[in-house]
Write a structure and sequence with these properties.
Helix content is 43%, strand content 17%. The protein has 205 residues and is of the alpha/beta class. The protein has a seven-stranded mixed beta sheet with strand order 2-1-5-4-3-6-7.
Length: 205
């Protein structure tokens, strides 16, 4: 409460009610630093709850065309699989981070279940082909990882960023007709993306 009064004392120095609290801020410059960072975090967090832009890919959207290199350096064109199978396209922040590794390994462990649901798993992040290959080999990943250096495809989908600008973790479920039927967004619960994907695919049967 004293800090609040001190803040108002700086704003309204002529107000006798708050004047005696002004030294709180004069003697504690760290308070200004704390307020600055709190304000920065609130602004960054607010970006995740703004209304979706018109060009954001969401439920009911047609899957946009794109092509990227996979972990083996081969060009993968999304149009080559549209109409043939369901797609689970998940954007993740970074190779080898703890949550991203858990998420990738969970997709790996459920690979046969996705196969039974006629679904192809595609992971996308901004690291290089070499980084993806190392990540795939280290964790014995058995699905496609695409290198989106420059985040062109991430921007094409309109994937939102998390707090402090960390790339968002979002999964898109696409049916055989190339239509997005479900979108799941959770930055910290990577394994939940796999659970939600399997749940929706089960409903598509």
């Amino acid at each position: 409460m004293n800090q609040t009064n001190g803040l108002f004392a700086n704003i309204f120095p002529w107000n006798l009610k708050f004047r005696r609290y002004r030294n709180i801020y004069r003697l504690n410059p760290g308070i200004y630093i704390l307020l600055f960072f709190l304000n920065f975090i609130l602004i960054a967090n607010s970006r995740t709850i703004k209304p979706l832009k018109m060009d954001t890919i969401g439920i009911g959207s047609r899957l946009p065309s794109f092509s990227l290199q996979d972990q083996n350096g081969q060009v993968f064109d999304i149009n080559s699989v549209i109409g043939k199978m369901n797609l689970v396209i998940y954007f993740y922040p970074k190779d080898d981070s703890p949550v991203c590794t858990k998420e990738a390994c969970s997709f790996r462990d459920q690979y046969d279940v996705f196969q039974n649901n006629n679904a192809k798993i595609i992971g996308i992040s901004g690291q290089s082909v070499e980084s993806h290959l190392a990540f795939a080999k280290k964790n014995h990943l058995n699905f496609t990882l695409l290198s989106d250096e420059g985040n062109k495809v991430r921007k094409l989908f309109g994937v939102p960023s998390g707090i402090l600008g960390i790339p968002g973790r979002v999964t898109y479920i696409v049916n055989k007709n190339g239509k997005v039927v479900y979108v799941f967004n959770s930055q910290m619960n990577g394994e939940k993306h796999v659970q939600e994907a399997l749940r929706i695919l089960g409903e598509l049967k």
